């Protein structure tokens, strides 16, 4: 069904340093299929405060938040849902009559992926990164019962703080350890970024691991996922995570939960 924009059309958007097409195509596909009077558009900004003010002032219904704004946006919001407050990281803003409430659907997505891929909580892990996405992953791991883990971050202050918050250890780099689960929660391998062609972990570490999870969603097969797959490792991609978190955002914005079949069609369309 065709979408016709009119004065009552509700706008949803995303804010990211490197805007992609996945969210735009995913949400607009579902709006069209479900005959919802919404439209979705991706943006970037150098002024997060003014951007959040614009969401409030213009009545923009919802906004997805990506790197590097997941923590910087918090000071401009009215309320944090428990999913965001517990980790002080935001990936979703919902605007209700000028009142901005924040959520974190990354946490939900990561939790579901850990469970559905059968990763045992007894597994040791190395989590690379200490930013907003790393916080969501660390919290999900802790809540799933993982206890033997390392936060690997060059920034000692943020790395140690994240490790301390969830009861893990911090290291500047992995030397001597061989975690069973490797997780990249940095922009390494992200299409369009300065490290797009780089691999987040060494081949030696990947070879010794059992599971490899790269939260980078674009491309669907990052250099890390490609390497891990070639070595026969069980992989979880950011492309898997982005669908799950986008569905939860869609529900928050519209109040409608699409069927599994429709979600699969929307994901396929968004990736095409």
Detailed description of the structure:
There is one protein chain. The protein is an alpha/beta fold and 272 residues long. The chain is globular, with a radius of gyration of 18 Å. It is built from ten helices and twelve strands. Helix 4 packs across helix 5 (132-143) and helix 4 (105-116) packs across helix 9 (238-254). It has a six-stranded mixed sheet with strand order 2-1-3-5-6-4. It has a six-stranded parallel sheet with strand order 9-8-7-10-11-12, sandwiched between helices. The chain folds into two domains: 10-104 and 241-271, Leucine Dehydrogenase, chain A, domain 1 (Rossmann fold); 107-238, Rossmann fold (3-Layer(aba) Sandwich), CATH 3.40.50.720. It has helices at 22-33, 48-58, 82-85, 105-116, 132-143, 156-166, 203-208, 223-230, 238-254, 260-271; strands at residues 10-15, 38-43, 62-65, 79-80, 92-96, 99-103, 125-128, 149-152, 169-171, 181-184, 211-214, 234-237. The model has no long low-confidence stretch (mean pLDDT 95).
Form type? globular
Q: What value does the Rg take, in angstroms?
A: 18 Å
CATH homologous superfamily classification of the largest domain: NAD(P)-binding Rossmann-like Domain
Distance between the termini: 19 Å
CATH topology of the largest domain, by name, is Rossmann fold
Class of the largest domain, according to the CATH hierarchy? Alpha Beta
What are the low-pLDDT stretches, counting only 5+ consecutive residues below 50? none
- Considering DSSP H and I runs of 4 or more, what fraction of the residues is helical? 25-40%
In percent, how much strand structure appears in the residues? Answer: 15-25%
Count of distinct strands: 12
CATH hierarchy: architecture of the largest domain: 3-Layer(aba) Sandwich
The spatial strand order of the largest sheet comes to 2-1-3-5-6-4
Largest sheet: 6 strands, mixed
In N-to-C order, the SSE pattern is EHEHEEHEEHEHEHEEHEHEHH
Class per helix and strand makeup = alpha/beta
User: How many helical stretches?
Assistant: 10
Number of domains: 2
- What is the averaged pLDDT score? 95
């Amino acid at each position: 069904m065709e979408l016709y924009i009119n004065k009552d059309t509700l706008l949803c958007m995303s804010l990211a340093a490197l805007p992609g097409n996945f969210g735009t195509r995913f949400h607009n596909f579902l709006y069209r299929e479900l005959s919802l009077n919404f439209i979705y558009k991706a943006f970037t900004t150098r002024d997060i405060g003014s951007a959040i003010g614009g969401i409030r002032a213009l009545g923009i219904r919802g906004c997805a938040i990506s790197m590097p704004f997941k923590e910087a946006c918090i000071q401009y919001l009215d309320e944090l849902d428990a999913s965001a407050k517990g980790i002080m990281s935001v990936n979703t803003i919902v605007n209700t009559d000028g009142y901005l409430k924040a959520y974190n659907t990354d946490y939900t997505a990561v939790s579901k992926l850990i469970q559905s891929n059968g990763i045992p909580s007894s597994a040791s892990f190395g989590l690379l990164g200490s930013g907003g996405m790393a916080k969501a992953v660390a919290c999900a791991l802790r809540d799933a019962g993982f206890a033997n883990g390392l936060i690997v971050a060059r920034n000692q202050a943020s790395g140690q703080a994240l490790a301390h918050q969830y009861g893990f250890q911090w290291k500047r780099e992995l030397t001597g350890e061989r975690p069973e689960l490797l997780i990249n929660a940095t922009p390494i391998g992200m299409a369009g970024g300065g490290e797009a062609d780089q691999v987040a972990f060494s081949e030696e570490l990947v070879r010794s691991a059992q599971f490899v999870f790269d939260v980078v969603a674009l491309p669907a097969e990052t250099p890390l996922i490609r390497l891990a797959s070639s070595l026969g490792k069980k992989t979880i991609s950011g492309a898997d995570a982005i669908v799950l978190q986008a569905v939860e955002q869609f529900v928050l914005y519209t109040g409608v939960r699409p069927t599994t079949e429709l979600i699969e069609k929307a994901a396929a369309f968004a990736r095409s």
